[in-house]
Amino acid sequence: MRTVCVIGGSRYFGRHLIESLSAAAKVTLVNRGSMPAPPGVEHVVADRDSASAMTAALGDRAFDVVIDQVCYTPDQARTALEVFAGRTPRYVMTSTIEVYADLEHSGPVAETAVDPLAVQVRHGLREYAYGDGKRQAEAVLARESAFDFVSVRSTHVLGGHDFTGRLAHYKERIADGRPVAVHADPKPTCFVNDREIAAVLEWAAGADFTGVVNACSHGELDVLALCEVIAAKVGRRPVYERGESPYSFERYYAMDNSRATSLGFTFSHVSDWLEEAVACA
Fold first, then answer.
1. Which of 14, 37, 180, 218 lies at a 20 to 30 A Cα distance from 20?
2. Is residue 135 exposed (0-12), middle (13-18) or buried (19+ Cβ within 10 Å)?
3. pTM, whole model, 2 decimals?
4. Helix, strand, or coil (residue 156)
5. In which band, very low, low, confident or very high, does the pLDDT at 281 lie, cut at 50, 70 and 90?
6. Is residue 38 within 8 Å of residue 121, measured between CB atoms?
7. Are 190 and 219 contacting, i.e. CB atoms less than 8 angstroms apart?
8. How would DSSP label each residue in 2-43?
9. 220-242 residue pLDDT tens
10. Is 241 exposed, middle or buried (0-12, 13-18, 19+ CB in 10 A)?
11. Four-residue CA torsion sign, 18, 20, 21, 27
12. How confident is the model at residue 110 (pLDDT cuts 50, 70, 90)?
């Protein structure tokens, strides 16, 4: 039976990932103990920031693949290298669309726009901006040959029990008749639902390609189009004011998913699941 280690991310879409993996593999969940493992999943409690603690907790365990859901900085990536070199031949990191946050582009951005091998790494900072920390973490793991490395750059995730509350922010304001803050000319972005991003990660874990893949459903929406879908669901017209909100962007902010598609993953269209996501928010 295949052995999979999942580091962190045991709620939201991470829960779907672990439950799906455990149907056909022996899964070990590593976290700090704040969230229990699902039934049938081995639970190892350790601080992922400490190489010595991780090494001691894992003992002599080895894995066919590791999926790292909570690698946010180059220092955490370095710790992962220390712990898992020699334990696994394949390492999948959950990354983010925010690695592209500083770019200006007029069409869907491809993975090559941010090459991990060209990213400057700065270890030991007290704080890292989210997208920058992810970029640097990718760079550390991509430059080593300890294992085959894959980075799945996820777009904004909707659906299910979204603890971020971003979609609920819009639904609640529209339902209550309160104004929604948007830019003067909001630009499109892309989305993926919670089960689909879990499926992408599981697919990447079992494949043999390496490098970066963008993960997003087909289709783009700006915040106004998103609010129209919500309005139809709650039966009340949205009221807008100038300002900022989670999915309002001043610049075009969508990804090109053609590499993952060419490698064999079949994405849904955002229209296939958005109404259900709104209903659950």
1. 218
2. buried
3. 0.96
4. strand
5. confident
6. no
7. yes
8. EEEEEES--STHHHHHHHHHTTTEEEEEEE-SSSPPPTT-EE
9. 999 999 999 999 999 999 999 99
10. exposed
11. positive
12. very high
Residues 4, 26: Cα–Cα separation, whole Å: 6
Find tokens 């969508």 and name the residue: 254
DSSP state of 207: S
Q: CB under 8 Å to 85, separation ≥6 — which residues?
A: 144, 146, 147
- Euclidean distance between the first and the last CA atom of the chain, given in angstroms as a whole number: 37
Alpha helices in the chain (DSSP H): 13-21, 51-58, 74-84, 130-142, 166-176, 194-206, 223-234, 258-262, 270-280
Give the pLDDT of residue 11: 75
CA 212 to chain centre: 13
Q: What is the pLDDT of residues 161-197, one digit of tens each?
A: 788 899 999 999 999 999 999 999 999 999 999 999 9
* Percentage with pLDDT > 90 across the chain: 88
Report pLDDT for 33: 86
